[in-house]
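REQUEST ID: PR-0412
SUBMITTED BY: lab tech R.K.
PRIORITY: routine
TASK: structure prediction, single protein chain
INPUT:
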Amino acid sequence: MQHEILTILGKKLEKIDLDTWKPLTWAYEKNRWFTPINLKLCMQEIIKSLQKENIEKWVNDYLPKIPKKSKKIGIIMAGNIPAVGWADFLAVLVTGHESHIKLSSQDEVLIPEIAKILFKIAPELKNKIHFDLRLKNCDAYIATGSDNSARYFEQYFGNKPHIIRKNRHSLAIIDGTETKQDFEKLSNDIFTYFGLGCRNVCKLLVPENYDLKDFFEGIFIQKEIANHYKYFNNYEYQRAVYLVNIIKHFDNGFVLLRENKQLVAPTGVIYYQSYENKTDLDLYLEEWKDKIQVIVSKDGTFPNSLPFGTAQTPFLWDYADNINTLQFLVESDSWD
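STATUS: complete
OUTPUT:
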């Protein structure tokens, strides 16, 4: 069974010295956003996903539903953070389908290199996993990209069974009881992968007349991010725009905080917005529900939110866009 093979893969990956594993160097050379620290974090999350208890919890309810006939599934992967298409890769594999994967030019190393290790464990999977330059004649498609690319995907794949994901972003709800330590945890949700992931927090909802001093003190633990030239160039550009256009903002030397009702902030910027009461919060969340990936709050106390510091450590059953990929794939017998 594929899910049993995956636990063996996880044990193999655990034994790798990530400090010397060449694919991490290759990935960084191809994409300087993929720093060694972020690549190691990504690999640790991949290894976590392959732990026996996590694989079993994820797939056990679906094992009786595994389709009788294997289908060709096209997977179009994004490249905003390392191995962002990993969960889709696993989902197609554990449901017995044949994957045809179109990698992002920004992220061409990690998943193919892990697949090579997998093929040594189970050579027969070479016939089930393919990395293609172009996708055609697939039975279904799973595509992740921007709102613009989603329109393209709809045009070309809309007549086939599909999951097409668009831009989503994440936010934090501040209730005013947070400590510096809480904001240190929240800083990981903001700055991990330089804020480039859909699970990264780029918007704060804060109580009226809230003093942002504690927030700034808490996130200062991330000050080293200013040493990354790509991130810092984005931060400096946005700061110049705000200064030239006399746009009110706060600046701590590595991130800008600006009051704005929009959800999506540029790299190097965090938007914030005040609320009077829970009704205010509910109205905002309802307005943006189709664009919000994750909500975080102190200890996860706000309904349907995660605790600070956990946004970028999802489990396999924490589905992107709340679309159950396994359920989609086990229903493939009905596609004919």
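NOTES: Residues 229-244 form the longest helix (16 residues).
REVIEWED BY: pending
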